[in-house]
């Protein structure tokens, strides 16, 4: 039987015979191959090689197999013929058969897929399911973790480039010949490279280093260490930093080069030689585009060379960091024990007064650890590679590095970085606390658990289980002890003790967050970023570098000068830490040095020293008014106490009969705003008394943003909104008792519930006792008050309420009249309440406050929900805007108010933080109509309840944390769960999250779930904010966060910038008459952070309007009701003098001439309708006549 085979380069086919047994090949197969070209619209001549190969391989065997089977080929017979064309009838039949075959094939694939879907799980899958069930609260956390690991994993392309570049760098090192650099150590001139060590002004150093020479010796052997090592693979980041290790040849160093910075100088000269030669290479041979020096772990004595590759494709993806260290056998290890001295007093000018035998009286433990770290680096790297041999361990290290980086613990001088994490993981592996076969989740959980229960600052740890005596000997010189396997290097020699304690505390919070099954902890643990300015209550900054040098020269001890020689900032930080920690004692939880921000032109190696210190307050002790010292009978301790406090101490007798030395920092009658600043007062006093640093030279961030809500004019020094809110609440409670005791009412008053923000301590401008009562011309009583306080009255249950809505409202008015009469009858009080009934509410004047009460019956809400079904007979119920608004005032807001009031009692900064956040939104012309106040409060409550950080004590810190949260949250993927009092079950939250991700469009843009929603989850963001407003606020928050990060040192002078609105982008500005604007008790947005006199809206004490009368609010309400389809209106409700108008994009589009499009538009020449802007602006003026001064059209 003949077989047809296609040729790739012609229109002929080759007929082949087989000598063996005849095999009948179906004709359809040949026709199949022919017809396929017809169906594709091609000719047989158009076939290419690939088609022929594919075809030959797709038959009942390969083409090669066919040729091997046949001893007789078509070429031997010479039968070269053109294939006959099949008939059309056969072609159609063949097509049907082909389609049938395709259907059968698809059916077989579907069956196979179904079998795959329902086949029994493998052992690996069962183990995975069991592990997820046992260790994870949900499979979502596990999937998010795996996705994060994929995201940070180094790509294969980058890995290959890294290996190639390192080989090129090795070849480059061979081109630098021995003796390429031969000079005295104090000579610092290099071509195109600035020497990284700063010896200017240290004349003794130049004198000592001038006696030693450096000679470059070639070293061609380098290796990659750290997280980019092939055995560890735990690095990530953009750009990826690859650590390259080079061990200096022995001939570069002398046996005593560990003395007097000689090792550090030779190390720097070696790096400078490499950097200089790298830059001198020709363009064709260059392997780097730029080099610079950066301090290793913030240590200015130990620069590393950062090299950016010349390949532009990877210049921003990968940076190489060259470490140069001494050989481990070059120096004796005993020279670096903490009690030894390796910096001679001659460097500080004391050569004559100190003999060689007295050197040991000046130990240099931190200097010794700096050199020993380099010497032990190779051995310790080999140890880590031998211990860490599991992918799950590597994944755990990556996750922990992400956790640390998001909290900025790895920044600054010797932070808690990835190297320390890796060493601790290795120590836990060696001590059998964790095992290689554990999952990454188990390892990070055990890491946090072990770290939370550790005591590195008191007991210490080590790899070799060192004796307590050995660890105790190290504690004489270090605050934190973690010994390497040799037992001589303290890996945490320079780790700030309070940073360790802070990380330990955060580990405990992380465990608590993992154990909370009602929230998805992954976002808070690994994705959310927590900058330093949002973590500490107070931040102390000293920017004057000359002041730092002078303070060290005058007040530092010689032993500290030697130990921290060459690093003025480290020594000054140590001095200030010791002083402040001693003075503040239990008032602070943590005192952590922070990394300072740099300008674009500054370099870490050359920037002048400046101190940044973060202070976390201890809420239980920070506001104590008195520091008690020793008793008077202890003369020695009393003298030391008086000497430390420099005249501030005094002898006082207390109620318990004790007579002690004491320092008094305030009076019990002082407002909370002043008590919050006691710590600042103590710090400034100590720095002035001990180091002669004046207050003007110190930048202290503590309460600057609170200026936005500071009452003005203040009745008390540092008066805050807490005092004003508390005064309202006390008056309300007293009035509530009076009203609940009223008799002769048809229904007894069961409860009086506040719904106003003042009851939650979150009103930026709480009412003051300025309300008044006047008599009108007809003798009627009129209440004057800018801000009535809103509340609801709950009556006892009764079944006699009518079923008609209007009847219910008339009956409520009767209740208002009856309650008003009974209040007037109250006589037995000094301050008698006055009441006035209206159709919709009841006003009560009491102790110069005006309270507005409303009765809401549940039947009202039910009636508003009713609607007729399609049959026009059956009545059904569904929520609408009116019923939801009424339910909000009746049940939801009272419940929310009670819960948030309790939250403020637990975290007493909550109210002020919410007020600052609201004031910031108002200043950006985002009023409660565009962004409801309750949304701000609930987002803040989520921060206090869900975030793995210590709740802030200072309101400013809470506000900055809230800003960061708003700026960094992806609202399209994030559902905010505020599980107040844990009322929402875990199953409900899981189901809501599932619905949220599956049907995101059915949820509001800002989705907040609370137990107050009454089953209608997402209720608080249902009306507002819209997507546009949500994006606007997010962008504003991002700009504010960027302003903080770039102006951190001068932030206290830029507070006004945060509250000054930008009018760019608006189409119309409506200017209001200032004489009619309702007065406020705080500064308007343009005066926040300044010392200007208050605006017109705050000056007149006689400016109280009729109760609840706010002309601007009513004007805005009319504008939005009439023109919301054309424009969005923006306004600052705290005394704003402008209304900004933004046309909606769809309103500016030309519309066809129809009846529905006529309103607000004008007819154009081409027969379409366009927005009649001039007429609308005229409408704005007419509606605001007497209130609007002018309408400005922005070009």
UniProtKB/TrEMBL annotation:
Report which superkingdom the organism of origin falls in: Eukaryota
Does RNA-binding show up as a keyword for this record? yes
Compositionally biased intervals (Basic residues): 15-24, 85-96
Q: Extract one GO BP annotation from the record.
A: tRNA export from nucleus
Write down the InterPro entries for this protein, in alphabetical order: NOL6/Upt22, Nrap_D1, Nrap_D2, Nrap_D3, Nrap_D4, Nrap_D5, Nrap_D6
Coiled coil regions in record: none
Q: Which Gene3D superfamilies match?
A: 1.10.1410.10, 3.30.70.3030
Primary localization class, coarse: nucleus
Picking any one GO molecular function of the record gives: RNA binding
Show the GO cellular component annotation of the record: chromosome; CURI complex; small-subunit processome; UTP-C complex
Q: What segments bear the compositional bias annotation Acidic residues?
A: 41-53
User: Where found, per UniProt?
Assistant: Chromosome; Nucleus, Nucleolus
Q: Map out region (Disordered) in residue numbers.
A: 1-107
Which keywords does this Swiss-Prot/TrEMBL entry list? Chromosome, Nucleus, RNA-binding
Kindly indicate whether the keyword ATP-binding belongs to this entry: no
Which Pfam families does the protein's record reference?
Answer: Nrap, Nrap_D2, Nrap_D3, Nrap_D4, Nrap_D5, Nrap_D6
Nrap protein domain residues are: 242-389, 393-528, 533-692, 714-905, 908-1061, 1063-1191
- Its biological purpose: Part of the small subunit (SSU) processome, first precursor of the small eukaryotic ribosomal subunit. During the assembly of the SSU processome in the nucleolus, many ribosome biogenesis factors, an RNA chaperone and ribosomal proteins associate with the nascent pre-rRNA and work in concert to generate RNA folding, modifications, rearrangements and cleavage as well as targeted degradation of pre-ribosomal RNA by the RNA exosome.
- Which family does the similarity line name? Belongs to the NRAP family.
Subunit structure comment from the entry:
Part of the small subunit (SSU) processome, composed of more than 70 proteins and the RNA chaperone small nucleolar RNA (snoRNA) U3.
Protein name stated in the entry? Nucleolar protein 6
